[in-house]
DNA sequence: CGATTGCTTGATACCTCTCAACCCAGGTGG
DNA sequence: CCACCTGGGTTGAGAGGTATCAAGCAATCG
């Protein structure tokens, strides 16, 4: 597909899901000496539920490959996605006995499960492990805090812009991002509707900030302007 | 001030700030055997900055009395309050070298400071401490996750309702809440404007859901309806 | 080929923001 | 004692951003 045609956003080839997981770069921090047992990876198909809200929290998880969403459903069907986790991220550690959100596979993915006993037995187990778990928890906390700012005080344009920059960063800084999730996922993560997300992305293309070679692939043509949007 | 006069919300006595801190009940979980040193409490005056965004994270803190807000400022002056912390809450633990948000005293308050060295030296120090810190971090994480749902998927009425219920809960379930913070603080916590918060609270009074004996004091007359609002 | 899913676009409604005025309580100082 | 000022809060009118409702396109799948 050749140079960009401003208003032609409706005919783009799709991208096989299987290719998506590869584009995500593993987290930077090291995992050796983590103290976590080397359990076998479990496979979840795209869309599968890893655990649901209210399920007994018998285990927590680490993403090996693919993307996982953490979300909550309101009684009237509204959904809020609290986070997307990629390879290297830990999720599902709970203080209480139950999971207070759901975890679902955005793409086909592999995760390692660890028994929650590890957490309650921390004092008796490896001390390095404690620090490792704390650092994972603090990482997730910092991410959640940034997310609050995004949700509470930013416009649709700023939300989508920050979202794209976040995934550029997670893809190792490459300007071409392959989105693992649907527009609906993005909307529920940003606290918008799917229509607003779609319109905003289209607007960015019209403004010459991004290219959209296919629906799930977005190339940032003008990072400066994009970053300025998210000031 | 006698029975409620529907539209008389503009003449209410003020409440001395000093009285507010007392109304907050300490967290339920125990702190003995925490392993944290028993450092002396530091006093901060109402409005004082405990640390700022970008400050070197030499210490983290625990609230002894009063209320602390964690917030972030955008370049154009918008502010998002990520959390209010009360007696027993830990705040300011960072993974990186800098604080990524600010902490300020909502009321006069006392906090205990702990050297960040404690975190990086975890393996060598008390193992029970590790678990304690992890549990604090997970508590803050769970709170942040709930906050995301509030910010992303709820209307003004639902936000304010959930906010009031939260503080009723923090006050030990008493239906009369004394708010430690200004309307602006509430607005910045809920991702609304001060006018919307004010209007929403007034509306709740007109609806007979709450009473407002003074600006900072709110009594829930109809908890059932209030909870139904936040379904 | 029809059905389905994901996405885009348009028209309109509505909720919240913005801008503005005003009220109240408290403090200060003449 | 009162005039004045300030900070926090409330209320109104209008604007604007996002949601809602609806239609249609593209790609995939059976």
Q: Note the quaternary state here.
A: homodimer
Mean pLDDT of chain A: 87
Largest interface: A-B, 45 and 45 residues
Beta-strand percentage of chain A? 15-25%
Helical proportion of chain A, percent range: 25-40%
- Largest β-sheet summary of chain A: 4 strands, antiparallel
Overview of the structural elements:
Chain A contains seven helices and eleven strands. Chain A is an alpha+beta fold and 231 residues long. A four-stranded antiparallel sheet of chain A has the order 1-8-3-6. In chain A, a hairpin with a 5-residue loop joins β4 (68-73) and β5. The first copy, chain A, is elongated. The model of chain A is unreliable at 1-33 (pLDDT under 50). The structure holds a DNA duplex (30 and 30 nucleotides).
How would you summarize the topology of this molecule?
The structure is a homodimer of 231-residue chains.
Chain A: H1 17-20, E1 41-44, E2 49-51, E3 59-65, E4 68-73, E5 79-85, E6 90-91, E7 102-105, E8 109-115, H2 117-120, H3 127-153, H4 156-170, E9 176-178, H5 183-190, H6 194-206, E10 210-214, E11 217-220, H7 223-229
Antiparallel strand pairs in A: 1-8, 2-7, 3-6, 3-8, 4-5, 4-7, 9-11, 10-11
Chain A binds a DNA duplex (30 and 30 nucleotides) through residues 9-14, 155-156, 182-184, 192-196, 198-199, 201-202, 215.
Q: What are the main properties of this structure?
A:
homodimer; 231 residues; alpha+beta; four-stranded antiparallel beta sheet; 11 strands; 23% strand; DNA-binding
């Amino acid at each position: 597909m050749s140079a960009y045609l401003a208003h032609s956003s409706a005919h783009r080839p799709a991208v096989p899901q299987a290719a998506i997981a590869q584009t995500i770069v593993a987290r930077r921090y090291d995992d050796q000496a983590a103290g976590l047992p080397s359990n076998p990876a479990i496979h979840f198909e795209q869309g599968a539920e890893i655990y649901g809200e209210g399920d007994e929290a018998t285990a927590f998880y680490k993403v090996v490959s693919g993307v996982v969403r953490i979300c909550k459903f309101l009684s009237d069907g509204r959904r809020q996605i609290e986070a997307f986790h990629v390879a290297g991220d830990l999720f599902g550690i709970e203080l209480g006995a139950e999971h207070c959100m759901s975890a679902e596979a955005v793409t086909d993915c592999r995760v390692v499960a660890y028994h929650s006993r590890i957490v309650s037995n921390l004092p008796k187990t490896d001390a390095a492990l404690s620090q490792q778990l704390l650092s994972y928890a603090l990482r997730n906390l910092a991410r959640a805090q940034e997310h609050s700012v995004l949700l509470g005080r930013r416009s649709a344009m700023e939300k989508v812009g920050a979202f794209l920059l976040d995934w550029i960063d997670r893809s190792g800084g490459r300007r071409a991002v392959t989105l693992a999730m649907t527009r609906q996922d993005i909307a529920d993560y940003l606290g918008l509707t799917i229509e607003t997300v779609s319109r905003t992305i289209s607007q960015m293309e019209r403004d010459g900030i991004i290219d959209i070679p296919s629906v799930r692939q977005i190339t940032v043509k003008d990072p400066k302007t994009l970053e300025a949007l998210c000031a």
